[in-house]
Please model this.
Amino acid sequence: MGEASSLRAATLDDAELLLAWRNDDATRRSSRSQEPLEYDAHLAWLSDAIRDPRRLLRVVVADGSPVASVRFDLLPDRDDSAEVSIVVAPAARGQGYGGVALAAGHLLVGETWPAVREVLAVVHQGNEPSRRLFEQAGYVLLAGPDEDGWLSCLRSLSAADV
Ligand SMILES: CC(C)(COP(=O)(O)OP(=O)(O)OC[C@H]1O[C@@H](n2cnc3c(N)ncnc32)[C@H](O)[C@@H]1OP(=O)(O)O)[C@@H](O)C(=O)NCCC(=O)NCCS
Model:
C-alpha cells in the first residue's frame, strides 16, 4: 500500500458514509441482496459487525479521505477460509483503490487470523471491474457461474501476504 493510504477500523461514525456507498446503484447491482438498506437496519448491522470477532471491517483512507471499505468474514463453521467484500466510494472508482484495499486486506487477514489459508470472492459475471480486480489480485475461478450469474473465485494466502 502506498504511503498515503492506510486501513482503519470502521466505527459507528462511518454509518452514513458506508450506507451511501452500499446504496449506490452499482454497489446494489453487485450485491446478492439488492434492495436499498434503511439507516436503522444498517446501523444495527454496523454495530454488530464492528464487534464481531469473525468479521473484519475496515475503511481505506487515501490522502486523508475515506475511499473504500473492505470486509472479511470467516466462513460459517470454518476458521481457515474467509470471504471478502469490497466497496469503493462511487467518486473514487477506477483509480486502483480496489487493489489497494485487497492487498492491505490480505495482509490484515494474515496478521489477524493466521489459520486462514484462502479467501473467497463471489463476483457477478457481468461486473467487469470486479472480475478484473480479483483476477489481477490472484483470484482464480473455483465455480460458476450459477443460475444467477455468480462466480466463486478463490485466492490462497501465501507467505508474501504475512
Ligand atoms: C468493483 C470495484 C471494487 C473495483 O474497484 P476500483 O478501485 O473501482 O477498480 P480499479 O480501479 O482497481 O480497476 C479494476 C479493473 O477494472 C477495470 N475497470 C474499472 N472500471 C471499469 C469499467 N467501468 N468497465 C470495465 N472495466 C473497468 C480497470 O481498468 C481495472 O482493470 P485493469 O487494471 O486491467 O485496467 C469498485 O468499482 C466498486 O466498488 N464497485 C461497486 C461495488 C462492487 O462491485 N464490489 C465488488 C463486489 S465484491
About this structure: The beta strands are 5-9, 55-62, 65-74, 81-88, 118-124, 140-143, 150-156.
